[in-house]
UniProtKB/TrEMBL annotation:
Entry keywords, A to Z: Hydrolase
Residue intervals of the Nudix hydrolase domain: 131-262
InterPro entries the UniProt entry points to: NUDIX_hydrolase-like_dom_sf, NUDIX_hydrolase_CS, NUDIX_hydrolase_dom
Pfam families tied to this protein: NUDIX (PF00293)
GO molecular function, one term: hydrolase activity
Naturally occurring in which organism (per UniProt): Zooxanthella nutricula
Identification of the protein by name: Nudix hydrolase domain-containing protein
Length: 518
């Protein structure tokens, strides 16, 4: 009876929206976190198991309870103190009304009250197409430093990402923006989704939120990349915080000056971005941005030649080992900068790409056009996918539908009579336009594939062509992956990129030996 009474008090204090789908363990933790037991302090949840969540914030059941408790502890004072503030802001009328012992919250009143306190509104819900509601946080970087807040309470206090608990009717990105302002005073704008509940945010203005909310303003610091490994992080929140921060800071680092110490040329790549200063074209923001990389598809859209004069639309890129454009290579930012330096102010010259032939307009690959079954000894028949690597990056496609949308390996369902390797090759072409050749079987349903030609499949099939991304190895830990497909996608991608890196190193050594005889 005592436990039931505590649980009811917690429900009233924390609001019905927070316990819309209460788990028994979560309700008990909420009650304990809010009121303590036998006079124990609020942080007396130290008995929670030492469990961890993965880099995307997903947790096993027991870890989820621990995480929920930590989140609830972070916003403990939404009970009495929040009600008093709400009364003060609304002329003595609380936005919630007591009914059947539960607090009913009006989302419209919440939004109005939030805007009155912070003066902040957001368009991220439509701009980033984020309609889910989650407790969320921001990764905020500025001048090669990342913003962190010190959370002194809970069972594992430490440095944390600014963020917290959602309000009813608030999208995940709006939660992240609001919580950052309420905890730090810094108004931010979500610009990219890093995980289901983590967003990369940029600073809009400082000293915007000036009235303390919930736990009030937290102590903050701007940490450099080299400081991240020495920090004490708060336990049980937001997955791999250090990984998210490290990736964001690596993205924001400008490219170093040349070894000779000469100044970087103020010249633009194919999309008008200064590659020598670490800029690239951002499709999300439709503008040049430090930390972005102008990939092949963006270069193709901006112009018909990249910064090194290679025909990006025809699958060419600069090969440093060969000293020329080569099919299958990919011009990276350092190579683009070197080409701009060599070419001087002349820049890149536009050339026409030949019109595609009738053969290049083939919708799908005929099943008998591939010998992958015989070549690989792969006679299994199943749905299948490819890991496609070019240079130092791996190909991913964004799948927007299903229960867990995200980045995925290109692949799909088997057609009647197809071998698994044939399915993988065909699906890659139908989803990306790339004709590929399976070269190695990695698992029963996943093959390592190499690009044979681009723009081969031109007519959309089924869901049509998907958004593509060439991902660097350091990005893999921060991507939002599609759920429940192809097993350990991140592990497969890392394995293929490691093999590619070793192979390229061996090729460079062999070419040097052929030239020098050494």
């Amino acid at each position: 009876q005592a436990l039931a009474q505590i649980s009811r008090r917690a429900s009233v204090a924390l609001g019905s929206d927070l316990l819309a789908e209460p788990r028994p363990a979560m309700l008990v933790l909420a009650a304990l976190a809010t009121f303590g037991v036998a006079g124990a302090p609020v942080g007396a949840l130290a008995a929670a198991p030492n469990l961890t969540c993965d880099s995307q914030g997903a947790c096993p059941n027991e870890a989820a309870y621990s995480r929920d408790a930590a989140l609830l502890q972070r916003s403990l004072d939404v009970s009495a103190r929040a009600a008093l503030r709400a009364d003060a802001l609304t002329g003595g009328r609380s936005a919630g009304s007591a009914r059947d012992g539960r607090r009913v919250t009006s989302s419209a009143a919440d939004s109005a009250r939030r805007a009155a306190v912070t003066g902040v509104t957001s368009d991220c819900k439509t701009r980033l197409n984020v309609h889910e509601e989650h407790h969320s946080a921001c990764v905020v970087t500025r001048d090669n430093k990342a913003l962190l807040v010190w959370v002194p309470y809970g069972s594992a206090p430490g440095w944390d990402l600014p963020g917290g608990m959602k309000h009813h009717g608030e999208s995940a990105c709006e939660t992240a923006e609001r919580e950052t302002c309420e905890e730090t005073g810094v108004q931010v704008r979500a610009v990219e989704r890093l995980a289901s509940n983590i967003f990369r945010c940029e600073v809009v203005a400082e000293h915007v939120c000036t009235s303390p909310v919930d736990e009030g303003f937290l102590r903050k610091q701007w940490a450099r990349k080299e400081d991240l490994g020495a920090l004490q992080y708060r336990g049980g929140t937001w997955g791999d915080k250090q990984g998210f921060l490290s990736s964001a800071l690596q993205e924001g680092e400008p490219q170093p000056a040349s070894q000779e110490g000469e100044p970087q040329p103020d010249q633009a790549d194919t999309c008008g971005c200064n590659a020598c200063n670490g800029e690239g074209f951002s499709s999300t923001r439709q503008q040049c941005a430090v930390g972005s990389i102008t990939d092949v598809n963006e270069a193709c859209a901006c112009a018909q030649q990249d910064a090194c004069g290679c025909r990006a639309c025809a699958g060419e890129g600069w090969s440093s080992s060969r000293g020329r454009c080569a099919r299958g290579s990919d011009t990276d930012p350092q190579e683009a900068c070197a080409c701009l330096r060599r070419n001087g102010a002349a820049g890149s010259v536009q050339i026409a790409v030949p019109e595609p032939t009738r053969e290049s307009l083939t919708t799908t690959l005929p099943r008998d056009s591939t010998d992958c079954g015989t070549r690989l000894g792969a006679w299994g028949k199943s749905n299948a996918a490819c890991v496609v690597v070019r240079g130092s990056r791996a190909l991913l496609v964004w799948v927007p539908y299903g229960g867990e949308p995200g980045w995925d390996l290109p692949g799909g369902k088997r057609n009647s009579g197809e071998l698994a390797c044939q399915t993988a090759e065909r699906e890659v072409c139908e989803e990306t336009g790339f004709q590929v050749r399976a070269t190695r079987q990695m698992t029963g349903a996943v093959f390592e594939c190499e690009i044979v030609a681009e723009n081969v499949c031109r007519n959309p099939v089924d869901e049509g062509f998907l958004k593509k991304k060439w991902a660097n190895v350091w990005e893999l830990g921060r991507l939002q992956y599609r759920g429940n497909t192809w097993g350990d996608k991140q592990g497969l991608l890392r394995s293929a990129l490691d093999r590619s890196s070793s192979s390229q190193s061996g090729q460079v050594v062999a070419e040097r030996a052929a030239v020098t005889g050494v």
